[in-house]
Amino acid sequence: MQYFEDYFWPCLTFLWAWHVWDAYLAYRQRGLYRAVKTVPAELRNSLDQETFDKSRLYQLDRSTFAFYHELYSQCEVTLFLLCGAFPWLWRCAGRLSQYIGYNEEYEMLQSVMFMLLALLLGDVLELPWLVYQTFVIEERHGFNKQTVRFFIWDQLKSLVLQLVLNPLVMVGMIFFIEWGGDHFYYYTWLFLFVVTMAWMTIFPTFIQPMFDTYTPLPSGDLKTAIQQLAATLHFPLKKVFVVDGSTRSNHSNAYFYGFWNNKRIVLFDTLLDEKLRQEVEDSKKEKDPKKEEEEEDKGKGDVVSPSEEKQDTDEGEVLTEDKPEDEASPEDKKHSTDSSKPKKVNLNGQHSSVVTERGTYPSLAGLVGRTFSFCENVITCGFMFSSFIVEC
User: Fold this and answer.
1) Is the distance from CB of 249 to CB of 290 less than 8 angstroms?
2) CA–CA dist 116, 162 (Å, integer)
C-alpha cells in the first residue's frame, strides 16, 4: 500500500503536466486559426480563399471542442482515481460473478466483468460529447449526413463488437501474465504484438464492411492512373476499392492497407465526381465483388498508393484529397510533377488537407507530445489496475 501511495501523486502530477502541455500546444494552434485569415503564399496555387476559410473555421471549432472534451476527460479520470471508482467497479464485477454462480477464485471472469463494466460506463459518459460533435459541429459545417437512427445503429454495432472482442484480448493477457512468471511482460508483449498485426488485417477485411460498403473501382482512366503511379513506385497494389463514406459524412479521405505483396487502396466516394460515382453504383448492382477481385488479380503486376495512411487521434482521419487524373487540369498536372510541391486539391466545396509527396515532418513539440502521450497511457493503465488490486 505504501508503495502505491509513494507513486500516486507524482504520477497524477505527470498526467496533469502532460494535459497542460497538450492544451498549450492546442492554444497556440487556435491562435493561428484566428490570426491567419488569408491563404499563405506557398499555397495560393493550390488552395482558393473560400476553401481555406471553410477549413480554418472548421478546425477552429474542432479545436475548441477538443479543449473542453479533453479537460472533461482529464477531470473524469482524476475523480475516478481519487474516489476509488475502479476498486468499486472491481467489487461490482465480483458481485456479478457471484450472481451467476462463480466465486472470487475465478479471477479471469471477474477481470472480464470489470472491463465490460468500465467499457459500458465509459461509453455512456462519452455519448453526449459524441452526439454534440456529430449533430452540432459536423452539422454546422455541412459534413454530417447521419440520421439519428443511423447514428444509433452505428453505436450499437460498435458496442457489440467491443463487448465481444475486448474480453478475448483481456483473457489472453491475463493468461500470459499468470503463466509467464517473472518474465510475463515478454510473453504479454508478444501476444499483444501478434494481436495488433492480426487486427490490422482483420479490421479492414471483416470489421469495416459491417459499417460501410466496399466496391471495386470500375475500370477507367482513374483506375489506370492509380495503377500506373503504383507501378512506378514499385508498390504491390492488388485492388482498388471505393467506400460509401458519403452515407455518414461529406469528408473526403483515402488510405491503403495490407502486408507484403497484398496492398489495397480505398478511396472515399466523396473524392469522385458524380459520373464516376454513378459507375460505382451501377457496378454494385451488375457485378459480384468477389468475381471482380478475381479478375483484378489476373495479369496485374505490383503497384502503390498515392496516399499515406495516417491515424488521427480524434477520428482516425487520413490523407490526400487529390483530383482524379482524368479530371486534372493542366495547372494541376504542372504541380503534380514536382513532388515537393503541394498537390492541387479539388473537394467540390469541401475542406482540404494539403500534403506533399514527401509527407509531413514532426516538429520537436510533436515528438515530445507523442512521448508524453505514450507515458500517459502507460501510467493511466497502471493506475486502473494497481488501484483496485491494492484496494482488494
Assistant:
1) no
2) 9
Instruction: Compute the chain's Rg from CA coordinates.
Output: 24
* More confident site: 78 or 328: 78
pLDDT class of 352 with cuts at 50, 70, 90 = very low
Inter-CA distances, 45 with 58, 346, 378, 380, 392, Å: 22, 12, 44, 46, 64
Q: Which amino acid is at 118?
A: A
- Compute φ and ψ for 249, nearest 5 degrees: -160, 155
52-106 residue pLDDT tens: 999 999 999 999 999 999 999 999 999 999 998 999 999 999 999 999 888 777 8
CA 99 to chain centre: 37
Q: How far apart, in Å, are the Cα atoms of 246 and each of 102, 138, 252, 267?
A: 48, 13, 9, 11
Mean pLDDT of the region 342-349:
38
Task: Answer yes or no: are the C-beta atoms of 280 and 272 closer than 8 Å.
Answer: yes
Residue range 141-183, pLDDT digits in tens: 999 999 999 999 999 999 999 999 999 999 999 999 999 998 9
- Residue 370 in contact with residue 68, Cβ under 8 Å? no
Query: Distance (Å, rounded) from C-alpha 199 to C-alpha 331?
Result: 41
Cell numbers for 51: 476553401
Paired with 249 in beta bridges are 144
Torsion angles phi and psi, residue 332, rounded to 5: -65, -45
Q: Answer whether 244's CB lies under 8 Å from 236's CB.
A: no
Beta strand 254-257 with 263-268 is antiparallel
Q: In b/e form, how buried is each residue of 205-227, taking b as 16+ CB within 10 angstroms?
A: eeeeeeeebbbbbbeeebbeebb
The pLDDT tens digits for 199-236 are 988 888 899 999 999 999 999 999 999 999 999 999 99
pLDDT, residue 285, reads: 67
Q: Is the pTM of this model over 0.85?
A: no
Choose among 159, 283, 171: nearest CA to 218.
283
Cell of 221: 482512366
Return the exposure string of 26-55: e unless at least 16 CB atoms fall within 10 Å of the residue's CB, then b. eeeebeebeeeeebeeeeeebbeeebbebb
